Known about the structure:
- Helix content is 73%, strand content 0%.
- It is mainly α.
- The protein has 2 domains: 3-70, 434 Repressor (Amino-terminal Domain) (Orthogonal Bundle), CATH 1.10.260; 80-119.
- Helix 2 (18-25) crosses helix 3 (29-36), helix 4 (45-54) crosses helix 5 (59-65) and helix 6 packs across helix 7 (81-91).
- The protein is elongated and about 45 Å long.
Amino acid sequence: xxxxxxxxxLREGKNISIAQLARQVGMSPTYLAPIERDVFPPxxxxxxxxxxxxxxxxxxxxxxxAGRIGTDLRKIIKRRPARAGQLLxxxxxxxxxxxxxxxxxxxxxxxxxxxxxxxx
Length: 120
C-alpha cells in the first residue's frame, strides 16, 4: 500500500480529521490532503516520523513506506558500511523470534557497556 493511502486509512480508522492530524504534525491540511491521495510525495523525514507517532505507528516502518531510511540509520551505515551490509544480509534469513533474541542480547550488552563506562 502507498504511503498516503496508508495515512488516510489509519487516520480515518482513528476518527481523526485531516485538520486534526495536520495540526498535530505541524503541517497544513491543504498540504496533507494531496499527500493522502498520493498526489504529492511523502513529506520530509521529521514529518513522516510525526505522522507515524500521531497514528500510533512505528516510525521506521513509516519511513520505509515513504521510501526513506532514518538519518540515524544512515549515519550508522556510513560509519561501518561493510559491517552494516553484512549484518543486514545475515539477519534477512532469520525469523522475527531470532531477530528479537539478537536485539535483546545487543541491548543488554549496550547497557552493560554504558554501566562500565560510568563506573570508571
